[in-house]
Amino acid sequence: MDNFQAMNQEFFDLINNETNKMLSSLSSDQTQQTIQQFNQQWNELASANITDPTSWLNNVANFQQQQVALWNQLLTEQSPPAANESAPGDDSVPLQQLQNQIFDYIKKSYQITSNILSEVAANAGLEEHEQQKLDFYTKQYTDAMSPDNFATTNPEVINEAIRTNGQSLVDGLKNLICDMEKGRISMTDEKAFSLGENIATTEGAVIYENELFQLIHYKPRGEQVYSKPTLIVPPCINKFYILDLQPHNSFVNYCVGQGQNTFLISWLNPSKQQGHLKWDDYVEDGIINAIGVVNDIANTKSLNAVSWCVGGTLLASSLAVLAKRNQKPVNSATFLTTLLDFSEPGEISVFIDQPQVDALLHQAKQQGVLSGRQLSTAFNMLRANDLIWSYVVNNYLKGKQPAPFDILYWNGDSTNLPYEMYQFYIRQMYLNNNLSSADELTIAGESIDLSSIDIPCYFLSTISDHIAPWKSTFKGTELLSGDNEFVLGASGHVAGVINPVSKNRRHYWADGQLDTGADNWLETAEKHDGSWWAHWDKWLKKRAGKKVKAPEYGNEKHQVIEPAPGRYVKIKIDDMD
Description:
about 575 residues, 11-stranded mixed β-sheet, two-stranded antiparallel sheet, 17 strands, about 45% helix
């Protein structure tokens, strides 16, 4: 304990203060919004209790009684001293034991406070959306105030500081300063990955580019490929290489290995100069344009499209536009965890109401883009203990380096969204749910109706998805009028999709009844072990055409610009600052 007593208390205070500053600087707008929403919700709750204060006073009394009982417990817990820890006749509690009791008291006091706040919030009886916001922001507050998140109230942090003679605190401060410079919390060892070297390494070439995207053509692995090419449309809200991580877990690599003539859209990470780009541009100059280029290169009339998340929403918009024009350049479509009906968007809806959206759009309009960091923080807040506070403790308070993890490296490589595109997306989809209604939206000059999409479609959702809930994505099968297939994978939005066949992990459900709702579909579906990738591959091969000679990159009109993964995917938000 001599080492501990010799440590400078000011250094602990420095760590706490700098950590708090860092958390504010990483996402000051989101932090202020969280505090504002928490205060607003609780002020409204307190005002409501003025007219009937009985319940409120009962909660206060309950809180006081529990805290007094806990304090009395601390004062009366006097265990016999251990050998060699106190002098004969000394009835005092050994120092180490007393410290343990104090930390236990702090923990239990926090739990009492947290439980009371959560209980009061849960019983507020507000309108559904306001209740959801109150519950969410109360949890954000109580999670943030956990004693584990502060150097002086986390015994593991203090013990680590003692064990390393304070080096852990020095290392934590270095980590903190480094992350402050980056403007985000490090979740993985970012130096362990380099695009094109050990991540996003599937061999290919960029054969087309415009202001919106680069088109990558991947090198076929065998002498033959299926005649109908595969075009992958990733979300523009993230970088495409979540689908091309490392060879063992790369969906792109799997497609190439199955004999598909594979192409992929790599969206530009927009700066404020691209703030004018609209949803229409992503549809017309993005996806429809890419479809035309791929069909031209492959010398085919139609291709098979694969999309993920907002990439699927864009693809469905594009298919509806093409249907209105009586064009069918797409043979089949795959939608991975894609919302087409936004009436129940899941946990993300806590951020979506008119006042919050208006404030967000006002800020995005001034900046020209919706910041990718802000988007990332919002998604991380949905799993704050796992994706924020665990790293605060590990990186800054214990001074440890996060382990290399390819998915978390991708998660930290966020992208912006153009203001014009985002304001259409958030208003028309999330606020008004107009995509699901016939002729409510005009996109690329066409009044669209999703029911006009009558090609075979494969829907993959995941049972624990908190971004695109599976029962909401299931509604897509009811909106599109073609021969639809629905498959439900285990795990969540990312891990459930990136589930390579080689690992033979998890399971999925398939072959349920589609016409009687999501619950009945699951009741009638069959559970299969392993990855959904193999199930999808069998489905796609029925629509992939005959085998033909494997092509070279591009064609005379669309020639190689540079090797994959290309320039666009390497543009980081840090480079724009």
